[in-house]
Amino acid sequence: MITVQSNINAPIKTVWECWTSPEHITKWNNASDDWHTPYAENDLRTGGRFKSTMAAKDGSMSFDFEGEYTLVEHNKAIKYVMADGRKVDVYFTETQTGIEVIESFDPETVNPEEMQRGGWQAILDNFKKYVEDFYI
């Protein structure tokens, strides 16, 4: 598994809401400024499904990121299986400096693991910025 992490300086309620609510997901779920997420839906429960469309702002390409939740523990953990069968675990832990978000995922076989780690870390960094700069 590949792991990325970040410490978010915000209360758990805010972090959880921004991570799981489609109206927030569409504002932070991109790795670079030339991409965006114009659509997101989320049935946040064990057995529920989620889907978000990630697209290049110039319209040159887009793809759906989707899967099914295998575990949802409110304010603590989310586990899911992506449409291609890879597993993802996300943990939210309260610390003295905020909420530590640790996300681990099975790598795919097309791109180098360092590239995958960098992309997922960039999205997590964008989440941190969104929560700390715009939501609080």
TrEMBL record:
<comment type="similarity">
    <text>Belongs to the AHA1 family.</text>
</comment>
<protein>
    <submittedName>
        <fullName>Uncharacterized protein YndB with AHSA1/START domain</fullName>
    </submittedName>
</protein>
<dbReference type="Pfam" id="PF08327">
    <property type="entry name" value="AHSA1"/>
</dbReference>
<feature type="domain" description="Activator of Hsp90 ATPase homologue 1/2-like C-terminal">
    <location>
        <begin position="9"/>
        <end position="132"/>
    </location>
</feature>
<dbReference type="InterPro" id="IPR013538">
    <property type="entry name" value="ASHA1/2-like_C"/>
</dbReference>
<dbReference type="InterPro" id="IPR023393">
    <property type="entry name" value="START-like_dom_sf"/>
</dbReference>
